[in-house]
């Protein structure tokens, strides 16, 4: 049993993580052994996140103290939270992938940019393309009109060259 000071330290750590994370996914890890949880932690660390087993009471208090409302229904039974600090989609994608591998890992809900979301929204978040793919699509959308404009200019320049060549041939024919 943690001492009062240890609980305060855990509470402060939870408050810091909940307030600074871009996204968090609350999971039920019941049935996972230590080796499986270690594998989950490693995968999340590779994705730029963190997986932490939490006490529901301390998480409830931390959420209340930072002004995060609506988290209480998801804090029942064993709870572990996957935090994402850089990319809001990364923890949802990693947990969704891990849930397919470990059937016992169940998504309860989540937090996205300071707003509580349910398990269905976490799954939709996990289905989003990666940030790089989305940026590529935006860039492609911006480049398409430029390519069309360049092609139109090239066609106009080619026509101008043909006209000038025809004029040159015509003048050369008259002079000869």
**Which strand order do you get reading across the main beta sheet?**
2-3-1-4-5
Q: What is the total tally of β strands?
A: 5
Largest sheet: 5 strands, antiparallel
N- and C-termini, Cα separation: 108 Å
- Just give the CATH class of the largest domain: Alpha Beta
Mean pLDDT: 87
Examine the secondary-structure arrangement and name the CATH architecture of the largest domain.
2-Layer Sandwich
Describe the structure.
The protein folds into two domains: 4-128, Alpha-Beta Plaits, CATH 3.30.70; 130-176. It has a five-stranded antiparallel sheet. It is elongated and about 105 Å long. Helix 1 (4-20) packs across helix 3 and helix 4 packs across helix 5. Helix content is 61%, strand content 16%. The model has no long low-confidence stretch (mean pLDDT 87). With 176 residues, the chain is of the alpha+beta class. It contains six helices and five strands.
Secondary structure elements and their pairing?
Blueprint: H1 4-20, E1 23-28, H2 34-46, E2 49-54, H3 56-66, E3 79-84, H4 90-101, E4 106-112, E5 115-118, H5 119-127, H6 131-175
Key words describing this protein structure:
single chain; 176 residues; Alpha-Beta Plaits; 2 domains; 5-stranded antiparallel β-sheet; elongated
């Amino acid at each position: 049993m943690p001492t009062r000071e240890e609980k305060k330290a855990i509470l402060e750590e939870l408050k810091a993580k909940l307030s600074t994370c871009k996204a968090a996914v609350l999971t039920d890890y019941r049935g996972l052994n230590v080796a499986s949880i270690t594998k989950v932690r490693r995968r999340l660390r590779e994705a730029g996140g963190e997986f932490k087993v939490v006490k529901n009471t301390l998480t409830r208090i931390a959420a209340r103290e930072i002004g995060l409302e609506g988290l209480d229904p998801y804090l029942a039974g064993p709870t572990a939270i996957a935090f994402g600090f850089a990319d809001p989609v990364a923890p949802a994608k990693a947990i969704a992938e891990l849930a397919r591998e470990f059937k016992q890992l169940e998504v309860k809900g989540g937090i996205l940019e300071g707003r509580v979301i349910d398990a269905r929204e976490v799954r939709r978040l996990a289905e989003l393309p990666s940030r790089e793919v989305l940026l590529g699509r935006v860039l492609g959308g911006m480049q398409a009109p430029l390519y069309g404009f360049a092609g139109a200019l090239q066609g106009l320049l080619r026509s101008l060259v043909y006209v000038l060549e025809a004029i040159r041939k015509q003048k050369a024919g008259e002079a000869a």
